[in-house]
Amino acid sequence: MNNMSITRRKFLALLSSASALPILGVGRAEASKTFNADVEIKLTAKSDKVSIFSGNKTQVYRYQGEVVKGEAGTLQTIKGSYLGPVLRFRKGQKVRIRFVNQLSEESIIHWHGLHIPDDMDGHPRFAVNGGEEYIYEFTVNNRAGTYWFHPHPHGNTAHQAYMGMAGLLIISDREEQALGLPSDEYDLPIVIQDRSFNRDNQLQYIGPSMMGMMQRMTGFKGEQIMINGLSDNTLSVATRPYRLRLLNGSNSRIYKLAWNDDSPLRVIATDGGLLENPEQRPYIMLAPGERIELWVDFSRYKIGTELTLRHLPMEESMSGSGMMGRMMRQSALSSNEGFEVLRVKVNKRSNTRLSIPNRLSQISHYPSDSIDKHRKFKLTMDHRQPGIDHRSFSMTEVSEYEVVKFGALEIWEFQNDVSGGMGPMPHPMHVHGVQFQVIERSVSADYEAAYEDVQYGYIDSGWKDTVLVMPGERVKLLIKFNHYDGMYLYHCHNLEHEDLGMMRNYLVKR
Ligand code: C2O
Ligand code: CU
Ligand code: CU
After folding, report:
1. Ligand nearest to the CA of 289
2. Which of 278, 307, 490, 509 is least enclosed, having the fewest CB within 10 Å?
3. Per-residue b/e over 33-59, b at no fewer than 16 CB within 10 Å?
4. Does one domain contain both 13 and 111?
């Protein structure tokens, strides 16, 4: 079935370039007549100019959205932002998305965190050229939560995402609605990204030089924090509770976030939606690709109060800026010293009093005696080649070790045993097509002291699709492969690592 659609896509592409006929739709070649979409949107990837600063506009790549069918509220555009629109879906909805690639390079969209068939997942083997389209049709199966979308063409994901191609995808469901959590203007996206701009306000990425090669090995680190694709990181709030949906949309930077007045953070959700109960932390770790939702009650602050959410200083060996970082020019945002991420101004009065629910949701736990397989994956770094078990990405290759039986319950263990000459590096590992549970972490003796500095910031109790694996750390995940069969990816979400090949296919077979 997949092979057929690839062939058809290639054929149509060929046909159109030969005859200059307009392409009617590729990938899943055209909208299928039997799929009765509740909502239909069009997302166009194109290069564009936005006013991020005063003076020159900034050249970006971005997703532009349009509702073709369904409520206008399906798309929410963030004014002045380079980010794509926020997509809002309900569980159970049938969605058609027409992706139009108007860039002059190939691309494809991946829906990060969703349970969808493999030809809807945005695997790089489905990338379409500039001028082509890809039609997605799927049912929203996931729980309510904060998901996101971004490009996934092989070798070019980091650059395209960096140029602005990303957006949030928010799913709601009845279970969540019954809780009466803060909504609308009190439910806010906070997409955190680091970027560098030159004096003409243009985005600076990693160059092709020797230094660039080294930067690529650690991952890009920017000199300025952008919130929701805007340079202004200030949020005006009222004296009442808010729901803040944080996404680390940075290419490689890991954040250790805390309030400047030492208030604990109250976490209500992770990648795959609501926790069972709220959890409190002195700080939270947020790696690229991860989401976390906070309940923040500003009612105890006086009007005029200013708060900041800060990145706390982190041990060099944990931030991945150790040896490599010292060799290169340090970014203006020093992971080792800390910096401001978000500024909050409490400047509106509100009398709404809501209290945080004690019970948020029910999470089913797998019986631990029914595990079918325990797979171990070493995160490796061989001579400038980040990989998984010393292998790097190859478009459709799956090793025997990467074939999973449909329906199996497995332990996947990622081992970041530091070896090789590049120094310790953290790896946020992401598995497509599933939500998993983190069941165990351990750290080697060499890294125990540094680990002490980050370990209280993990939220491992909920559903996740991306997990931070620190230097010296081993993390065990419990994953049930019961959604779809087919070929999916697992990879490091440090986007430079991903592009360098720290990504592999796995195949779910019936
Ligand atoms: Cu958000 Cu394959 O990644
Ligand atoms: Cu993903
Ligand atoms: Cu990595």
Report:
1. 1
2. 509
3. eeeebbbbbbbbbbebebebeeeeebb
4. yes
